[in-house]
Give the backbone structure.
Amino acid sequence: QVQLVESGGGLVQPGGSLRLSCAASGTILSINTMGWYRQAPGKERELVAAITSGRSTNYADSVKGRFTISRDNAKNTVYLQMNSLKPEDTAVYYCHVPLWGMDYWGKGILVTVSS
């Protein structure tokens, strides 16, 4: 079993920044890919960014140049630095780890971008 715990969400004004963290725990030897998804009200869940253990990254076009994903392999933790936030970034953000043929998800954390 893998548990994912997110932190760092909240309310921020447009143009502001937030940093999300997700710590994975459980019976884990190594994790290849860790990522962040988000789901806005009335919309489907979408990939925001993902990173491999070798630190190859993939970003949604809508966040390129504004968001940066990183990880600490020793701590099984993934981060999402979000800069220049826009109201359309408002969503519940979910940490995701595909492992052993299964998808593990965090409970989600709300990010609200509003003045």
